Amino acid sequence: MAVGDTRGRSLLPRTRKTRALLAVLAMSSPRPVLRAQLAALLWSRREQEQARASLRQSVHELQDSLGPDWSHLFIADRHNLSLRGMGLSVDTIELADSTAIAIDLLDRFKYRLLDDLDGLDPAFDTWLADARNRLNRRSLAIGESILAASDGPVATIEAADHLLAIHPLHEGAWRAMIRSHAELGNLDAAAGCYDRCCGALAEARDGRRPSPETDDLISRVRARAAVAQTSPAVQEPAAVSNGGGRHSQRGDRSAVRVRVAPMRTLGDQRNESLAVGLAEEISAGLSRFRWISCVPAMSWRDPPGKAAPESGAFGYPWEVPEADLMLDGTIQHAPGRVRIIVRLVDLRAGGEIVWAGRFDREMTDPLALQDELGATIVARIDPELLRHEARRMNMAQQTEMTAQDLLLRALPGVYRMEWQGFVAAGRLLEASLRADSGSSVAHGWLAYWNLLYVGQGWATDPAACIAEAGRLAERAVMLDPGDARALTLAGHVRGYLSKHPAEAIALHERALALNPNLAMAWCFSGFSYSYLGDHEEALRRINHAIRLSPADPHMFFFDMALVIVQLMRGDYAAAIEAGRRAVELNPLFSSTYKSYLAALGWQGLMPEAHEVRDRLLALEPGFSIAQAVERSPFVRAEDVSRYAEGLRRAGLT
C-alpha cells in the first residue's frame, strides 16, 4: 500500500489499522461508510465501546497523515466516514471501472492486493478476500478480452503470457499459446507450453491433469509434428498467368470461398427449418461482400448423390470442393428460448476455428429471428474473416502474390496507423491495383488510405491526396456499382474530404441498400449526418455499427465517431469516455485526440486536456485551431464554433 501526492511526499499512516481504515475508505470512495461498520471490520474481537475508541484514534492519525493540504478529502461526521473530492485517485477503482483493454493495464493486476495487511483482523481478512476476488474477476475479464482481440500468433502468445502471469491455471490461455506456437511452426515450443500447463495444474490442484480439450489439442499438434518429420513438404499449386491476372490451379483467388452448412439441431427437431433458413440467410448476407465468394448452403456431410468426404486429422475434410472456410453450428431449444452457436472453420488449416459466437434469443417469430440473427452473424464474420485472411497472408512465405494477396497483406498496416507500416501498406495497395486495375475493392481501400493519410496530417501535399482519394473512390464505384464497401468509401471521401455530406449520404444509402450488414457503412453514414447537423440520427447509426461489429478491427474508428457526435450534442462526459476508449484501442490515430481534446476543454478537465494536447501535437506537430476549422466538414456554423471553442479552452492555439 502506498499513499503519495503530486510533490512525491508519502502520506501513508504509521499504524497498520489506520492504513486498513484508509484502504477501506479509498476502495469505497466516494460512498460513505458507517463508523459502526468500520469498527466491526477492524476491531471485531473487542467490545463495542473499545472498538469505537480505537476507531477515533485511527481517525485522528489519518487526519494527521493527510495533513493540511489533503485533509479536506477526508469527510467525517457523527455516523459516517468517507474519502472523496477532486484530487483523489485510487488505483483499484480505476482498474475496476476502466473500459480500456490493454496489456499495460493488465500488468497492474500482478500484485496481490494489500499484501501487507493480511491477518489484521478476521472480519477485515474476509473483506479483503472479497475485494481480491473482485479484482481477480476484473483482471480475468480484461485478460480474456485482450486474448480474444489478439491479431496474429505473436500477439496471442504475448497476451496469453500476460494473462497466465496472473491466472496461471487458465487453460484457455495455455491452449491459445499452444495453438499459436504450432501456427508459427514452433512445435517443440507448443509441447513445452503443454508441459508447463501440466506442472501448474498439478502444483495447484493436487495432481489434477489438463482438461480433455487441452489433451486433444496437444495430441493434434504432436500428430502434425510426426507428419512433418516423416512426410515430404507439400507445395502449394503454382501460380499461372491467364493474361488478365494470376490465378492458382485451384481456381480464381480474387475472393475467399466460404461454405455455409445447415446447422445441427440438438434435441428439438422443431428447429430444423430455422437451421436451414438461417444458413440461407447467412449465405445471402455473405454474398453481398465483394471479397467473399459464398458456396451454396449445402452440408458437406451429405451432398446429394455423394458419400461424405473423408475427414482429416482435425475432424474436418481437408479439401472441400471450392471452399476455403466453412461456417457451421448448432441450435438448441428451451422453452421460449433458442441458443445458436456458430463456428467459422479454416479448412485449409485442418479445421482451425477462426471465430466462434454464441447467440441466445427469445423464440418469437421464427422469420424475424432468422433475419436478426443472420444480420448479426454476417456483420461479425466480415471483419473477423478480413483479420484472419490478412494474418494468414502475412505469415505465408510467397514469392508471387495475387492482387488479393497484396491487398490482404496491406490491411494490418492500415488498421494499426503506425507511420512506417501505414506507408508500406499504401505501397502494397498500389501494387495490388497494378496487378488488377479493374478491382473496385483495391480502388476503394486505396481511396480510404489516402483519406487517412490526410486525416493523420502525414500528407506533404494534402490537396493532391484529396484529389487522388476522390478519383479512386469514383473509379471504384464506376467499376462495380454493386460494391457496397466501395460506395460507402466513396461517400466518406465525398463527405469528409470534399465537404459534400448530402451527396455522401446518397452514396451511403445505396451501400446500405446493397449490404445492410456492412458496419462501416453505418458508421460513415453517421459521420455524414453529423456533418449536416443531425447528431441524433448520427448517434443512432454509429451505435448500430458498433452493435453489428463489436470486435471490428476499426473499433477505434467507431469510438472516434462517437466522440465527434457526443461533442456536437453537448454530452461532453460521453465524448470524453469514448475518447479514452478510442485512444486505448489505438493511441496513434490522431483524429481521435482532436474532438476528445475539445470535449475536455468544454468540461474544464485541464490536466487531462494538457496531456491529450501534447499527445496530439506529438502526432501532428504544429496542429492549430485554424487548421482544425479549415479541415472541418461541418455545415453549421454553430458546430464549427463549438469544436473550435473547445480546442481553445483546452489550450490549443
How is the topology of this model organized?
Blueprint (H helix, E strand, L loop, with lengths): L15 H13 L4 E2 H8 L5 H23 L3 E3 L3 E4 L7 H7 L5 H5 L14 H28 L3 H14 L4 H13 L3 H18 L7 H19 L8 E3 L4 E3 L7 E5 L3 E3 L5 H15 L5 E4 L29 E10 L2 E10 L5 E11 L3 H30 L7 H14 L2 H17 L4 H16 L6 H18 L4 H14 L3 H14 L4 H14 L2 H14 L6 H15 L2 H14 L4 H14 L2 H14 L5 H7 L5 H13 L4
Parallel strand pairs: 6-8, 6-9, 7-9
Antiparallel strand pairs: 1-3, 2-3, 4-5, 9-10, 10-11
Notes on the structure:
The chain has 653 residues and is α/β, with parallel strands linked by helices. It has 26 helices and 11 strands. Strands 6, 7, 8, 9, 10 and 11 form a 6-stranded mixed sheet that branches. A 3-stranded antiparallel sheet has the order 1-3-2. The longest helix has 30 residues, at 366-395. It is globular, with a radius of gyration of 29 Å. The model is unreliable at 229-252 and 298-321 (pLDDT under 50).
